[in-house]
Automatic annotation (TrEMBL):
<dbReference type="Pfam" id="PF13302">
    <property type="entry name" value="Acetyltransf_3"/>
</dbReference>
<feature type="domain" description="N-acetyltransferase">
    <location>
        <begin position="1"/>
        <end position="160"/>
    </location>
</feature>
<dbReference type="InterPro" id="IPR016181">
    <property type="entry name" value="Acyl_CoA_acyltransferase"/>
</dbReference>
<protein>
    <submittedName>
        <fullName>GNAT family N-acetyltransferase</fullName>
    </submittedName>
</protein>
<dbReference type="GO" id="GO:0016747">
    <property type="term" value="F:acyltransferase activity, transferring groups other than amino-acyl groups"/>
</dbReference>
<dbReference type="InterPro" id="IPR000182">
    <property type="entry name" value="GNAT_dom"/>
</dbReference>
Amino acid sequence: MHPSHAEELAEEVAPIHDVWFTRLPSPAGMAAEIDRRLERHASGLVVPWAIRRVSDGRAIGMTTYLNIRPEDRRLEIGSTWIAPSAQGTGLNKEIKLLQLERAFDQLDCIAVELRTHWHNRRSRAAIAALGAKQDGILRHHDLWRDGTVRDVVVFSIIAPEWPTVRLGLTEHLKHLP
């Protein structure tokens, strides 16, 4: 992720930034959000990436390693969003495969978490389709912008499951057009 991605990401997030069950940056707040993630990265708290489309190199989303706990050999993949033009194309599985390979094969993680809002059914389905298993629901876990509370659905992939998850993702990606 780099500040130079701000303009493209602001354009791509515009149609989806105000979906009530997400915390996506607004187009006007994109540069500040990139700066915030890069500051947190410099402090060792997160590892953010811009998602770029291969065909034209355009930045079309973000994803991040969060809650990095090297002493426990675990982390969370989250704060992911993909432009509507790239949703449903298999891109999410491709991105997650790369992130999971790094987490399990290079960082020697024993578990990787993925979390989403209870009401984000599309995200819940996408996480389950990766091969992650639902661990549970953290009721009233986060206070939301409008004063409501968010129930957080927690999924994970653990190290013994990783070979099968990898195979499932790899096989799925082989059959995309």
